[in-house]
């Protein structure tokens, strides 16, 4: 950025990665390292390098700095095996030992070399390394202490697709009926049943549902509405099946959910208050019965932003965070969605009476942000689906990993659809 002055060179190297999915967790310590600081001892840290096909080395990991000691014990760290050696177990791994300095001019203490195969032997006499300084000739440099491998463990790193192949996803659709949304017969209502175009609720449901249904193994979706008076007695319900069948609330595919939604608008009377907690708890009760990793529940909620039981809803979300369950909330209409943003734990994790949610399981997106001004409805709905589902893979993986659950064998060899967002 300085005209007329060379500021350095950036070298970009590329190598095709192996398909090795293993991840290694290791911990190291050192003893009697050279003292590099005039006052005090050293502040040592390790730098790991993977050797490349052309003989060069690339940094693949740095440990933390342990202050003022010649006998540091570094924290255990995890690294993909492909990052350490790209699947070649005998490829050289070089480790440099440095003394940290505040100005960045870290003092070199020494180095040693090893390999993944050697490290995988774990703690033994072969994994005690003498740290040596570099020499220009063929002779060995002066010793600078020793580094010892304390522990080494290898695990398989499973992906979202591995779990989906095992048929784990179970999707529950919840259409949020709101008294504030107005009568479906009025054009001003978000539930207005126009003969010319689908209402906002239907558009959001179709856009997200058509993508997420491909990750449900049986394509049967229990679909509920709440905030309505039900025939024939006008009883108020906050979790009623859209199909009208309390014994079997399932709808076949998203088209079946849409049909049940439009049919229910003709028979129920929209009514407040709008309570979220009952339906979240209902799905959570189902998820609590199956915590072995064989199923994972995704609750899709569509709302205009009004919520009457925020405190109870926070409690329900905190409780559900420890279960195999995620919640997707799509906000429709012009209202402010402050309450929905609060439930989405991207910035601040949801808590109830001082108890924080174990995981962030809520993803919220406002529907209005995805209305394409050029009228390209297909593009805008694709963008909506992508952002809505972006966090689901990591949420599923986080639950499975913390509980040591491995994916089941694939149910079929049919190709999987592309997942919007990331995998």
How would you explain this protein's 3D organization?
The chain has 423 residues and is of the alpha+beta class. It folds into two domains: 22-156, Sandwich (Immunoglobulin-like); 160-402, von Willebrand factor, type A domain (Rossmann fold), CATH 3.40.50. It has helices at 81-85, 116-119, 160-165, 200-212, 253-265, 277-288, 310-320, 338-343, 377-388, 392-402; strands spanning 22-31, 44-51, 57-62, 77-80, 92-99, 107-115, 128-132, 143-156, 169-176, 220-226, 228-230, 235-237, 240-241, 250-252, 269-270, 296-303, 325-331, 351-352, 355-356, 362-366. The strands form five sheets. Strands 9, 10, 13, 14, 16, 17 and 20 form a seven-stranded mixed sheet that branches. The longest helix has 13 residues, at 200-212. It is elongated and about 90 Å long.
What layout of secondary structure does this protein have?
Layout: E1 22-31, E2 44-51, E3 57-62, E4 77-80, H1 81-85, E5 92-99, E6 107-115, H2 116-119, E7 128-132, E8 143-156, H3 160-165, E9 169-176, H4 200-212, E10 220-226, E11 228-230, E12 235-237, E13 240-241, E14 250-252, H5 253-265, E15 269-270, H6 277-288, E16 296-303, H7 310-320, E17 325-331, H8 338-343, E18 351-352, E19 355-356, E20 362-366, H9 377-388, H10 392-402
Parallel strand pairs: 9-10, 9-16, 16-17, 17-20
Antiparallel strand pairs: 1-4, 1-8, 2-3, 2-5, 5-6, 7-8, 10-13, 10-14, 11-12, 11-15, 18-19
Helix pairs in contact: 4-5, 4-9, 6-7
Protein name: Copine family member IX
GO cellular component, one term: plasma membrane
Organism: Gadus morhua
């Amino acid at each position: 950025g300085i005209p007329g002055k060379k500021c350095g060179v950036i070298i970009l190297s590329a190598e095709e990665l192996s398909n090795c999915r293993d991840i290694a967790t290791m911990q190291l310590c050192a003893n009697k390292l050279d003292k590099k600081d005039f006052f005090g001892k050293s502040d040592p840290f390790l730098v790991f390098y993977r050797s490349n096909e052309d003989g060069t080395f690339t940094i693949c990991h740095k440990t933390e700095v342990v202050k003022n000691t010649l006998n540091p014990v570094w924290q255990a760290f995890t690294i993909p095996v492909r990052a350490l050696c790209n699947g070649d177990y005998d490829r050289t791994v070089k480790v440099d030992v440095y003394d940290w300095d505040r100005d960045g001019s870290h003092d070199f203490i020494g180095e040693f070399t090893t390999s993944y195969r050697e490290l995988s032997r774990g703690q033994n006499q072969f994994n005690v390394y003498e740290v040596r300084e570099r020499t220009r000739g063929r002779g060995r440099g002066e010793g600078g202490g020793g580094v010892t491998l304390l522990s080494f463990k290898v695990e398989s790193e499973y992906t979202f697709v591995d779990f989906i192949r095992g048929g784990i996803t179970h999707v529950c659709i919840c259409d949020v009926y709101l008294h504030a949304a107005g009568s479906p017969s009025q054009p001003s209502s978000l539930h207005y049943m126009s003969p010319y175009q689908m209402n906002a609720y239907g558009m959001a449901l179709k856009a997200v549902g058509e993508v997420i249904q491909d990750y449900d193994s049986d394509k049967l979706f229990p679909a509920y509405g709440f905030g309505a008076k039900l025939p024939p007695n006008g009883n108020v319900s906050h979790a009623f099946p859209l199909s009208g069948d309390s014994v079997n609330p399932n709808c076949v595919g998203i088209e079946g959910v849409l049909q049940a939604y439009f049919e229910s608008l003709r028979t129920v009377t929209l009514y407040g208050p709008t309570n979220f907690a009952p339906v979240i708890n209902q799905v959570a009760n189902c998820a609590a019965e199956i915590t072995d990793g064989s199923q994972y529940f995704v609750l899709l909620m569509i709302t205009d932003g009004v919520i009457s039981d925020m405190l109870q809803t926070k409690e329900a979300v905190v409780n559900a965070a420890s279960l195999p369950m995620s919640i997707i909330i799509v906000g429709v209409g012009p209202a402010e969605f402050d309450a929905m943003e609060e439930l989405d734990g991207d910035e601040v994790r949801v808590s109830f009476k001082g108890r924080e949610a174990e995981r962030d399981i809520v993803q919220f997106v406002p529907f209005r942000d995805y209305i394409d001004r050029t009228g390209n409805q297909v593009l805008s709905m694709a963008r909506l689906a992508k952002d809505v589902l972006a966090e689901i893979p990591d949420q599923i993986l986080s639950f499975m990993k913390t509980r040591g659950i491995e994916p089941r064998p694939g149910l079929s060899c049919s190709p999987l659809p592309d997942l919007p967002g990331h995998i």
